[in-house]
Amino acid sequence: MTLALNQVTTIFLAVALLVLGTFLVKKASFLQKFCIPAPVVGGLLFAVIATALKATGILQITLDTSLQSLFMLTFFTTVGLGASFKLIKLGGKLLVIYWLACGFLALAQNVIGVSLASVFGIHPLIGMMAGAVSMEGGHGAAGAFGQTLEDMGIQSALAIGIAAATFGLVAGGLVGGPTVKYLITKYDLKPTETETVVETVEEKVQPITSNTFFIQVLLITFCMALGTYLGELFSTATGFVLPGYVGAMFVAVIVRNIVDKLNPKAIDMKSINLISDVTLGIFLSMALMSIKLWEVADLALPMLVIVFVQVVFIVLFGIFVLFRLLGKNYDAAVMVAGFTGHGLGATPNAMANMAAVTGRFGPSRKAYLVVPIVGAFLIDVFAMPIIITTINLFK
């Protein structure tokens, strides 16, 4: 028996699973500890149930996920609108070094993924899905690029990317603290500050009004329209695959920094972040619940090996390279904790790692300034071109 859900019912189900995931995360301390996103919990739960129903021959569920791309496009556009280069001045030299290190990490993660894929005899782009896409990119990039690769005919890319992102998220939470504790103990590091101050770079937040909200919607839809159009033109002219959401994101980066020059108050990040959270939640929920788990059983071992190597690499890079580049002091050690968190998972993972370290050993204002700026916004400026280039090299 087959149950076919239409477009509206699929969206309803995605939102319901998102709400269910939020409830489960609040109830399960393990999920909170490792910052597992609510849509991942709800979506994967449905995917497991759907797989069981299909395997037992009871029911096969088909979904209409045609609007998933719209939510995905909107989310990546909001990421671009958050990338104000004014933030670089706030972080100074340390931010630039950290940012460049994140760019190198994206390149290294793709090299590791593609190289090990050839060892296992699987498609190089499947290896890439366990590289920068799912490690630095997290679930959002894994869902987006996974769908792009499946549209190109590479089966199981989405499921592999989501699974790798989930394992990376857990690993990032597990290894960050011990890595930094090793550095602090070995070099007898002490914080230079006496008070715990978490510094944010957000301007004074004003209440959201319908007028300011619609201005943000205007900017977002403009960037979406222009970005997808330019992306299609670029792909047609060069034969180089450039997904529409990537084009929209980079147009949004340009628009944000132009608007900052003309009218800095025009961008309301509270509204942008609200739209970002909603669209990411629904997009991820739809991506997760539509995964065909039965298609990835044969790729489970290669994926786990690749993720394990990624974890070992980022720990060694953090200890022997990044720690020294950032000044070989307490602030550098705390930033290594953040780097491990979002280099394998997501920015909330980075913040959780740093909170655990600073809660025990003392504050680090520099780390709390640099890591969120790069992890949440600037990282994609390097990571996206590296991922797109890898896709075009091995398509």
Automatic annotation (TrEMBL):
Pfam name, any one: Glt_symporter
GO biological process: L-glutamate transmembrane transport
Location relative to the cell: Cell membrane
Transmembrane segments: 6-25, 37-63, 69-88, 95-120, 157-180, 213-231, 237-259, 271-294, 300-323, 367-394
Gene Ontology CC: plasma membrane
GO MF terms, alphabetically ordered: glutamate:sodium symporter activity
Its biological purpose: Catalyzes the sodium-dependent transport of glutamate.
Record family assignment: Belongs to the glutamate:Na(+) symporter (ESS) (TC 2.A.27) family.
NCBIfam families to which the protein is assigned, alphabetical: gltS
Protein name: Sodium/glutamate symporter
UniProt gene name: gltS
